[in-house]
Write a structure and sequence with these properties.
Length: 216
């Protein structure tokens, strides 16, 4: 069953009748944002290897960042096509069998407050909430993005690392054993590594990561 319960999703259902985000077919049964046919036809990928061995217990990317996934993620983030949120939340919930069983908290990759204000939402947070409900774990909210860094897209690995240097902070040590970082897309893994390192330096013993898509 690919069902994830979350108040945000019910609000979205109220604002727009349930239909597949990709083909427009009315949803049936437990389908929330994507029909079974489109769910099957998405460009699924094998779990990705960790970009920095030893930092992550597990790093899983569910889809290839190619059409229609790339276009849908861009539309969701930059054009407020929020009907893609339930669809991609379902994709993340489908990762449950691939995740370590001892995860006790989820950290959505933070947005700087200026970008969140401009966009109106943090897509990583909205995508993470249904998964947190499915796993019965809390969403970590004490990690902040302290610098309004330029967009990572178009930067090479070295530029991404420089761009994110000291970009995140934690208000206080975290008392979790195994935190799962959630984001929409991973490219070089720089953002995930920066956050994982910060978590480990602040009391978290194990870190895993999950993204909707992986860019080549």
């Amino acid at each position: 069953m690919r069902h994830c319960d979350d108040p945000v999703m019910w609000i979205l259902d109220f604002l727009a009748p349930r239909s597949c985000a990709f083909c427009g077919t009315p949803s049936e049964g437990n389908e929330q944002g994507i029909c079974s046919a489109c769910f099957t036809d998405l460009p699924w990928c094998e779990p990705a290897a960790s970009p920095t061995p030893g930092i992550f217990v597990s790093l899983v990317s569910m889809l290839q960042y190619e059409f229609p996934v790339d276009a849908a993620i861009k539309a969701m983030k930059f054009s407020r096509r929020l009907y893609y949120l339930p669809a991609f939340a379902e994709v993340l919930c489908a990762a449950r069998p691939l995740l370590p069983t001892d995860i006790d908290a989820i950290l959505p990759v933070p947005l700087h407050w200026r970008r969140k204000t401009s966009r109106g939402f943090n897509q990583a947070t909205e995508l993470a909430k249904p998964l947190a409900g499915l796993l019965s774990v809390p969403v970590v909210r004490r990690v902040r993005r302290t610098r309004a860094t330029p967009f990572q897209s178009g930067l090479d690995a070295a530029a991404r690392a420089k761009n994110l240097r000291q970009a995140f902070s934690i208000d206080a040590p975290l008392h979790y054993e195994h935190v799962l970082i959630v984001d929409d897309v991973v490219t070089t893994g720089t953002t995930l590594v920066q956050l994982a390192t910060l978590l480990r330096h602040n009391g978290v013993k194990k870190v895993s990561a999950l993204t909707v898509a992986r860019a080549r």
